[in-house]
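Good day; I would like, with your permission, to put a structural problem before you. A protein sequence and the structure tokens that stand for its backbone fold form the material at issue. The record follows directly beneath this note:
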Amino acid sequence: MLHQTSVVVVVFCFLLVASSSYASVQDFCVADLSLPDTPSGFPCKDVKKVSVSDFVYSGLAAAGNTSNIIKAAVTPAFTAQFPGVNGLGISTARLDLAVGGVIPIHTHPGGSELLVVIQGTICAGFISSSANKVYFKTLNKGDVMVFPQGLLHFQINSGKAPALAIVSFSSPVPGLQITDFALFANDLPTEIVAATTFLDVAQIKKLKGVLGGSG
């Protein structure tokens, strides 16, 4: 009986190593955007149809439109825009902040973020889940800051000129949830928002009006 168990374990280990080895020889999995997305990413494009353009993206060259309520723009290079990053655990984006621009407190549930300041001055920080400790700093050109996966964080243009940063993520689809929009840009009843945030009803209705919410 022990001998049979040992044989089963050896065979299982062999199959596991064999499957891992097989997976490692697949150089890439360019996303086939014509097929539905899945929890593990887009299905792979037929390698015969893959070209160099799948591995190149020029969308970050142009500045984003910052004429909006937050005076900021994020230009993503995620799987949907850049199929070559599918399955690689990486992606990037361009962040433009006009004077007074802000990326409100938000979270990326799918990956950690690394920010590199290219131009201007940016005050950035995150809040830990342990005792809600805040880590923030004013960043200048060339400075780099990391924001751990899932933690609330923000970026503010704290200078007197437009700011530019390149951000990278440890996921091809990091996800995004902005706290302000989650609370005030939907139809969650005002009474529930008031009960769960301790804000007064008048302020909540004002914010819902600004951000397009109802209820």
Remarks:
- The chain has two domains: 49-175, 182-211.
- The beta strands are 72-77, 91-97, 102-107, 113-119, 122-127, 134-139, 144-147, 153-157, 163-169, 177-178.
- The helical segments are 2-24, 179-184, 190-197, 201-211.
